[in-house]
User: Fold these one by one.
Assistant:
Number 1:
Amino acid sequence: MKQHIENYLKKLEWVTINNDILNIEKFSGNYNIPHIITQIKVYLKNEKRN
């Protein structure tokens, strides 16, 4: 339980969205983060057209 709480209390790291986001040694998720960011960019681009 103590380890679970320690993991929960770790600080978030805010990063700039760039090619470093593809570093799978730093970020987990098998490229899920870049995929989500791409989808957000597509959504925002389409919103500007409307």
Number 2:
Amino acid sequence: MNGGTITGNIETLFVQQNLSFGDGGLATFVIEGELQGNATVPKLLDVTIGSLGTSAFLNADTIIEGGRLQIGPQLGACATGAPATKKMVQIDTIENGAALIFDGNLSANVSVGAITGGQFIVEGGVEDVQIVIGNMSSQSNPGGVTFGSSASGPCPFFGELVINGTLPAGTSVEFNGPFDATASIGMVGQSIKGTMALKAGGAGTIVAGGVGLSGTLTLAEGASSSFSGSVTLVGLSIGGILETTAGADLEGTVTFPFSIGGTVDVDGDLGKNGRILIGGDSLGSVVVGGNQRGSIDVGSNIGSAGSIAIGGNLTGDIHMGGDMLGSIDVKSLARGGRITADGLGDGPITVKEGTFNSTFIHLNDGLGAGGSIVIDDMGGAFDAGGSVQIGPDIDKYAPMPPVVFDGCILIKDDLSGHIDVNGCHAADTADLNVCVLGAMKGTISINQDTCPDPVGLDNSCINPCP
């Protein structure tokens, strides 16, 4: 069919490609009314359909390069999460520079075999439907998927997006409206190497094979936005980024079952219910720009190149199941805040301001030669009011455990809290380097009863922590 307009509704349409046309038999037509039944079109160049009926099924082989399939109606009110009907749109390929456009809300299930430099655009919201995309790639134009892009205001996404291939570099998936708690993204075994952004934040569930080199997953943008859903990523490669931006908070759970090498960057707060869970080693960086009330849990070690940085107050937990070989940097350790490692602390822990009472820093296996704890690093008259424990808890019925203290502790103002060093030291251990530059209002205890090689305390501050 070449050109022409079909007025009113249509029940069934079958277009047979006629190569005798000068344009190669490419379909160009307009249906002003509703497609109520089945329509089969081999190749689309420029097709407009007024709307889809509840039982409509549109099947097209290809939207050819530079072509367009546009489906109405125009956007009225945003999507509300209505359940899917029988309507279905099935496209094998959206070619370079081509576009599949829904002018309003998407209330049909959609299957696209491949997007090769084309665009899939929903101007309105997405109802409770399933969208399945096979593969995506960039050509001379970037391949992309956009939801809720209406200039009249971004609409929510209630559906299920399944991407069965990698999201390669140069491609993008954008959600401009809120991502509802019932919504989901499934990329099982597939990596994000392009960009995926939930610009208005939201909730819902995201499962993917990981974020690869040059890939970015943005969970929320803007100080009024947050993400409170669940994200599970098998990996986060060096150069990969999971983030919130422009002051957006993380109130949900991000889980990495294994080790990570990339960057987790929460530009706002890690809220009370916020969780960052790393099953293996953390070899990259974890950054919270605001306050941390939730928890960061590293199942094994923070590697030597790994780091955790908290720009605001830490009232939540940072925990390592193994050693701390990298660095931890926080503004202040506020009431209830905890930094704990089940292994050795062999990197710097820096608290720029003070530590409140009821706070706790604990390095179970001790403080290695590369380890240090510095409190009030800014020198701003902030007390060390919490507890610091080097070594394990003492069981009075068991032999005194071993401990390492080859590093240093520096308090740049008053010590009004407690420092406890528990355990027996190696025979060649020097006196413990603990320097308090302010007033001694608290206690320093070296608990080493029955130890064969007791050590002393060097509080001369001749060689304080760097």
Number 3:
Amino acid sequence: MSMRLGEAQQLQLGYRLARARRLSRKAEQAAQQARLALARAL
């Protein structure tokens, strides 16, 4: 039983890490677009 619980926790951690990576990638893209827009405006 404890093995299954550990597996579930690992899966949850994996999901959280994947979501964080996806969010950070989106944030990076947004920052890059903002920088490009600023460069065009100047």
